[in-house]
Amino acid sequence: MTDTAPNPAATAGAAPARQVLLQKIYLKDASLEVPLAPDVFTRQWQPQLDVQVNTELKPLPQDHYQLMLSVTVTAKLGEDVAFLAEVHQAGVFIVRGFDNPAEKHAVLGAFCPGQVFPFARDAIADLVQRGGFPQLLLQPINFEALYVEHQQKAAAAARTQAETNGAAVATH
């Protein structure tokens, strides 16, 4: 999977073609905690689930990037934690040929997490089932919509900050 074909456009003097190449998917860390075992298995199973998903991007040399997706699932029975499963699933991508930084950022912030998530979902499902619990299938996540929402919130926060700074300057 690490082999890349030469880019004829780049060798002919034209702008390099856009490339997003998945180099490696790996499980960086995984854990399952069952604090009430074995008593939790004698209780009626109607958990309230809380799913938290976060991404972390790390630039690497030569247009490589590590995208780490952290998925934490907490299942509660009332106030008691039945289990806490956490997976840090990572992928290494080559991302090159994007002249527009916003487009490159969108690829890294939306497309790449979408490629890594199925592996994290499988790892969570496996951990939970090995822990003795019923099958848990996390729903797909639209990372593109989340990315757009995040960008809109950041832009709104920047506008609010600029307005606040402008008002502070005007009063002095």
Q: Could you list some keywords that capture this structure?
A:
single chain, 172 residues, Bacterial Protein-export protein SecB, 2 domains, four-stranded antiparallel β-sheet, 3 helices, flat
Rg is 21 Å
Could you name the CATH class of the largest domain? Alpha Beta
Number of domains: 2
The CATH H-level homologous superfamily of the largest domain: SecB-like
Point out poorly predicted stretches: none
Annotation field: number of helices: 3
Percentage beta strand: 25-35%
What is the CATH topology assignment of the largest domain? Bacterial Protein-export protein SecB
Residues in helices, as a percent range:
25-40%
Overall shape: flat
Strand order of the largest sheet: 1-4-3-2
Q: What is the N-to-C order of secondary-structure elements (H for helix, E for strand)?
A: HEEEEHH
GO biological process, one term: protein transport
Subcellular location: Cytoplasm
InterPro entries: SecB, SecB-like_sf
Main location: cytoplasm
Strand-helix topology:
Blueprint: H1 8-11, E1 19-33, E2 48-59, E3 64-77, E4 80-96, H2 101-130, H3 143-170
Antiparallel strand pairs: 1-4, 2-3, 3-4
Give a brief outline of the structure.
The protein has three helices and four strands; from the N terminus they run αββββαα.
Question: Could you walk me through the main structural features you see in this protein, from its secondary elements to its overall organization?
Answer:
- Pfam families: SecB.
- Homotetramer, a dimer of dimers. One homotetramer interacts with 1 SecA dimer.
- The protein has two domains: 14-141, SecB-like (Bacterial Protein-export protein SecB), CATH 3.10.420.10; 143-172.
- A four-stranded antiparallel beta sheet has the order 1-4-3-2, covered by helices on one side.
- The radius of gyration is 21 Å and the shape is flat.
- Helix 2 (101-130) crosses helix 3.
- It has three helices and four strands, in the order αββββαα.
- With 172 residues, it is an alpha+beta fold.
- The longest helix has 30 residues, at 101-130.
- The chain has helices at residues 8-11, 101-130, 143-170, and strands spanning 19-33, 48-59, 64-77, 80-96.
